[in-house]
Design a protein that fits this description.
The protein is α+β, with helices and mostly antiparallel strands and about 675 residues long. Among the domains are: about 140 residues, ibrinogen binding protein from staphylococcus aureus domain (ibrinogen binding protein from staphylococcus aureus fold), CATH 2.30.310.10; about 100 residues, no CATH class; about 120 residues, no CATH class; about 80 residues, no CATH class. About 40% of the residues lie in helices and about 25% in strands. A nine-stranded antiparallel sheet has the order 4-3-2-1-5-6-7-8-9. Strand 6 and strand 7 form a beta hairpin.
Length: about 675
């Protein structure tokens, strides 16, 4: 099985990734927070005029932006909800590394005050939220430790440093550290003293030409000077930002590491360069998880079989514990009953002992006792059965049924029951110990299975292909607006509001394009991107239907509306007399080309390939892409009621693909396709 060399970020890695993040995410706003596993969080960030970003934090392991879609839980855990409460819509003011430790500080500004998010990337890791005064408000893990406490309301204290900050270490101090280390090897001493991680410590030594197994006592002043110079060169690469991030592979194309710049240590290895260290880390850890899932498929099956076996064993052991504990309790009660009723029981046994001593037939005694029992005799009422062969008298009383040996005294009988109770308790204890052992093993296996399942973000085959499907595609410019493609291939784009109307006309409309508008106040501009081609009659009709559907005529439940089209050079921001034109509006000059009585209708459909997605537009344009669609017309069914009706109708049409569709039929997915969030399904 392959072993991935990099398990978590080093201090050097953290320094570089934080430097990149500071430029990328500072002044962004938190739009949402997701907790995708016990220690993994996705912060969705938005910055003006830039695509949304996903910042991934995994306690004790990694921090980087990710371009891959991550499955989000339906119900966010309590800690995630707490983070949302404090940080949703907060501005991320700054990102910083604590000294040169594997600790990252995020400073947020909100209307309620300033907050700090502290990500600990060492050991098991943790993530905490504090107020401006460093008082702990929330933590993923609260705990008491030898050197500090993570408790709500207490002031956050940084852990003891893992080593000196290498940027603050001078030549003399480094030389003194090596002298004090004596016979210890130089690489371990370097790691302990400045905590740069094993890989970078080896790199410093390799660049200096010093074998890593060299004893510190063998280092001359010149060698220490050479080593110090090598360290300074590496730190300069970190602080200058002059990086060449890459992912490192071995000769089998197995992942080895992700580094911010080329290392002599990996000379001869295959490398893949990336534009940023964040991107390299994203590729490395995402592919590492995917590759791990491939490697662990057989292991998972074996673990599943073992888990099933242990469950069967546990069921048997639980039964054994219950039976032993019940027997112990019953035998003790019998012993207690004997001592509490010595006279009654002795009277009963004396009937048998006397008859036996006198040579009488014991069956005659049994008959006499049964007769007396039927007559209501107190002593005889205890009698249940007699075993003449073993001389056992069975007694029934107080919901107990037990046998007394005529060869023994009552005290000896009681002692035997107490001894049986003791042995049963010992048996129960042994069974419980075995049960605890089996339960512990099952818990370990279930934890391993959970880790494998968490790593299995993609199927076992075609890792690269699967990952590519998970990669978040950059949005096209038209996705900022409403848009569709006509059945004959023209891109049609419409404004959503005054702002997008203004931007669409001013920034994205070319002289060869055609602009449509419904003849009613409160209608978007609709632009057909002609790209030098002559507009077809089909495209004209579909663009007009789109303009009509998203006009106020839909809200007013009209059946049709007139639509006109013009060329872009017929639009002006000011009238001839200088009258004010509102933002998002334009004055139309010259001839208008009319399409009368354009019907108000809109198709909404689902395209199902590897995954399902909604499309909407004129019926002909949607029909060209999918047969699974419904036709909407103006009506009074509104909001979620309408959205659910649409989802149900699409699911009914989908047949065997119904399950794939229901995964995307969330209210928000349908909402954006329905004009004014109201209408009705035609012929429904």
């Amino acid at each position: 099985m392959r072993v991935l060399k990099k398990k978590e970020l080093t201090s050097v890695d953290v320094a570089v990734v934080v430097c990149e993040l500071r430029d990328r995410v500072s002044e962004s706003r938190v739009t949402n927070i997701y907790q995708t596993s016990p220690g993994t969080f996705i912060f969705k960030l938005h910055k003006a005029n830039e695509p949304s970003m996903q910042l991934l934090m995994e306690t004790g392991r990694r921090l980087h932006l990710t371009s891959y879609a991550v499955e989000k839980p339906r119900s966010p855990p309590a800690f995630c909800m707490a983070l949302r409460k404090y940080l949703r819509n907060a501005k991320l003011v700054n990102v910083a590394q604590q000294e040169f430790e594997r600790i990252v500080l995020f400073r947020f500004s909100t209307g309620a005050g300033q907050f700090k998010l502290i990500l600990e990337l060492f050991g098991e890791g943790n993530i905490l939220l504090t107020d401006e005064g460093d008082r702990i408000l929330q933590a993923l893990v609260f705990k008491r430790m030898r050197d500090r406490n993570i408790l709500r309301g207490e002031r956050y204290r940084f852990p003891p440093t893992a080593g000196k900050n290498p940027f603050n270490v001078g030549l003399e101090e480094l030389e003194e550290a090596f002298k004090a280390a004596g016979a210890a090897d130089v690489v371990r001493t370097l790691v302990r003293f400045i905590a740069i991680g094993g890989v970078y410590a080896e790199e410093v030594l390799l660049r200096a030409g010093i074998p890593k197994t060299t004893q510190c006592s063998d280092l001359s002043h010149d060698k220490v000077t050479l080593l110090f110079s090598s360290l300074q060169n590496l730190l300069l690469q970190v602080s200058s930002g002059k990086t060449r991030p890459c992912v490192v592979y071995d000769e089998n194309n197995d992942l080895v590491d992700a580094v911010p710049f080329e290392l002599e240590l990996y000379r001869g290895y295959k490398t893949q360069e990336y534009a940023s260290f964040n991107e390299a880390l994203d590729e490395f850890f995402t592919r590492a998880s995917a590759s791990a899932s491939v490697l662990k498929t057989e292991q998972r099956e074996a673990l599943m079989h073992e888990a099933e076996r242990l469950k069967r064993v546990i069921n048997e052991q639980e039964k054994a514990v219950r039976e032993a504990e019940s027997a112990a309790e019953t035998d003790k009660r019998v012993g207690d009953y004997i001592y509490a009723n010595l006279n009654l029981l002795q009277t009963l046994l004396d009937r048998f002992n006397k008859a036996k001593a006198e040579g009488k037939n014991l069956q005659t005694v049994v008959s006499e006792i049964l007769s007396a029992k039927n007559a209501g005799g107190a002593v005889e009422s205890l009698f249940e059965f007699f075993d003449p062969r073993n001389l056992l008298v069975t007694v029934s009383a107080d919901n107990l049924r037990f046998s007394l040996n005529l060869r023994r005294t009552l005290f000896e009988n009681a002692a035997e029951f107490y001894e049986r109770s003791k042995k049963a308790r010992q048996k129960a204890a042994g069974a419980k110990a075995a049960l605890d052992d089996s339960t512990g093993k099952l818990r370990e296996i279930e934890q391993q299975l959970a880790e494998i399942d968490a790593a299995t973000a993609v199927e076992s085959a075609g890792v690269s292909e699967k990952l590519e499907k998970r990669r978040i595609k950059p949005k096209q410019w038209c996705e900022k607006f409403r848009w569709f493609q006509t059945s004959d291939g023209f891109l049609v784009v419409a404004g959503k509001d005054a702002v997008t109307n203004e931007v669409l006309i001013k920034k994205y409309t070319d002289p060869s394009d055609v602009v449509f508008h419904a003849d009613i106040q409160g209608a978007p501009f609709v632009v057909v991107k002609a790209t030098g081609k002559t507009l077809t009659e089909q495209a004209t009709r579909e663009a007009a239907e789109f303009a009509a559907a998203f006009s106020r005529a839909w809200r007013e439940s009209l059946g049709s509306v007139d639509v006109y089209w013009v060329k872009p050079d017929q639009l002006r921001k000011g009238g001839s007399s200088g009258e004010y034109v509102p933002h998002g509006a334009f004055v139309v000059t010259g001839k208008r080309n009319w399409l009368r009585n354009v019907p108000l209708k809109l198709a909404i459909g689902v395209i199902v390939n590897d995954e399902a997605s909604f499309v909407s537009g004129p019926e002909e344009s949607v029909k060209a892409k999918t047969n699974c669609y419904v036709l909407l017309v103006p009506g009074d069914v509104a909001g979620k009621t309408l959205f659910k009706q649409i989802a149900h109708a699409l699911a009914q049409k989908a047949g065997k693909l119904r399950k794939q569709i229901t995964a995307v039929t969330a209210v928000e997915n349908i909402r954006e396709h329905v004009p004014y969030a109201k209408g009705r399904i035609a012929n429904a």
